[in-house]
Amino acid sequence: MNFKRLFEPKTLAVIGVSLDNDRHPANVVYYKNHLRYPVEVFAVNPKGGRLQGEIVYSRVAEIPKAVDIAVIAVRAEFVPDILADCINSGVGGAAVISGGFAESGRRDLQDQVTAIAREADFPFIGPNCLGLYAPGRIDSFFLPSERFVRPEPGPVAVISQSGGILVDQMVKFAQEGVGLSMGISIGNKALVGEIELLEEFGRDDRTKVIAFYVEGFGKREGRAFVEAAARCPKPVIVLKAGKSALGERAVSSHTASLAGDYAVFSAALAQHGIVEARNEFELLSFCESLSRYQRSITGKIAIITGSGGHGALAVDACASHKLAVPTLLETDQAQLRERLSRSIRSIAALGNPIDLTGSALDDDFYQTAEFLSRTPDVDCLIVLLLPYLPGITSDLGARLSQLYLKEGKPLVAYVPRVEKYRMLIEGFELNGVPVSPSIEGAVLMAEAMRRCKPC
Amino acid sequence: MLTEAMRAILAEARQWGWVLEPEAKRLFALWGLPVPKFTWARDIGEALRFAEEIGYPVAAKVVSPEVVHKSDVKGVVAGIGGREELEEVFARFRALPGFKGVLVEEMAEGLELIVGAKVDHQFGPVILFGIGGTGVEIYKDSVLRMAPLTEKDADAMLTGLQARPLLEGYRGRDPVDRQGLTRFLLDFSRLVMTLEERITSIDINPLFCSSKGCIAADARITLPSFEGA
Fold first, then answer.
1. Which of A252, A274, A453 is most worth mutating to test chain B (most B CB atoms within 10 A of its CB)?
2. Fewer C-beta within 10 Å: chain B N or C terminus?
3. Residue B186 host element (H or E)
4. ipTM
5. For residue range B116-174, what is the model confidence (pLDDT) as tens digits?
6. Chain B interface includes A249 (CB < 8 A)
């Protein structure tokens, strides 16, 4: 199946615009693409007419240009005919937004649509979905522009069985500065599901990390998915909903009881090197980390901080995520001490966690991070930065990021996320170094690299 | 490869939805998985003859298509020391519903493990390995892998248990026969892949493992026609 025109469209037909209700989902999609995206947009409604002065075509066949993508938002029973029209008119692919298929008892209608598309090798997303969003290229989400929060273009593809979860995740991506290559809500995944998209984004040059929100797979579909993920050269992250045993029926064998649906799911992911996010916070942290660092670490962490308490909490978090915080050799500690400012030399604790104390300067953080970047006993640095310490300036984020670019040892930071500290945070983020608003999140970023096998 | 004899065992069991223990053990033995010396005694004379042949103590278990959970009806007795005791047990088992004889077998010992399989709807056949015994669902110390297992998978399963030190010889005890255990898991995985269309689950609990080897002391195979405990 060829997704090229569907994912890189130059022309878009929105089928099912309303001539009298401007809040109709199709109208929202029409306007936002017409006004804000570099695609040429055509409105379609059998009645024809005009929409804010623009022609409304009565059929897709009447559109004077080749249409790359059709967004279909008509009543379910009209979808088979509309889809056939699209195929006959040489459209490149479609997103079927309409509901009213398998999710509400009309599997027959869904099967009919799928058969038509499969016969013609015509890719369509959905039905019962939001479709796709690619920053700066295309947006089929029927969410009003002014309320929509857009992540920047970037390396993460997110594929979600739930449109709501996808949009929510995108809000968080935008907030944390995680870039998106494409977000796809696959809805009922009648024709195009996780496996097809995994393979497609595995080949896509923009995408470096592929993340999924999965509710469930069909018969043996899970097996095919994990096997495809194991072959994929990029990190794959999965958040699974429906982990609780509620509703799982009583079983007669010990094995069936211990190997419940979720236990099997989780084990199959781990066996194939897929990073399972246990909740949405982990999903965000893992995406942020792996979008910068597509590499595997053994999990030997150095923690650099200006506060003993932060160091202690980070050590606890590391332990609970099976990350080691090895004590530095005495000789290394002595060398490092030589590099520190005279004022903290006698009070800094350098065992690991490395507590540079509240009197530390930018230079002390830089020197320590540089030294540890060259220490083979450590394969990732977690820097806990407290911007209210008097010796720290807003330049430090950018300086530490430059250090990463020079030395190449993964570095993640914790900075409290308030507007006042924006400049410090931006220094990291503009250089692509991940920053978490919590200690736990920074530790999760390191864990992502430990758990990612194909990186 | 599934032999005629193995096919026949599964065909016969379809009426109950699960394979009775002596038949499941025969199937394992045909596949080359180690099981204790056993016999399915239909009468007391057969039971006594076999017990004398292999020597006391022996274990006895009720064979009945109506009794899936034998311990729940006190249908398992281990360490039977002599003739009189075996007669007593046999008589008691005879009164259990659906009685079809008694499984008499040699006593096995070692660390109690569980090896199992399940054909999962989403992921197909998966293998379970863990700490076994009657407390298996209390301790829940087990690991799962999609079948077929590679040698590397089997090795990772052995090291993945919380109770790993027990396998490696805890407090002066001999470590279990790691090679034998790995081989058991791989042979079992091959069996599961061969049977995947015909079964829903297999439980071997306990699998006794010691420094001398591993032996499947219990066996239950459920089939797609199984309707509940």
1. A252
2. N
3. helix B178-195
4. 0.91
5. 999 999 999 999 999 998 888 888 999 999 999 999 999 999 999 999 999 998 888 89
6. no
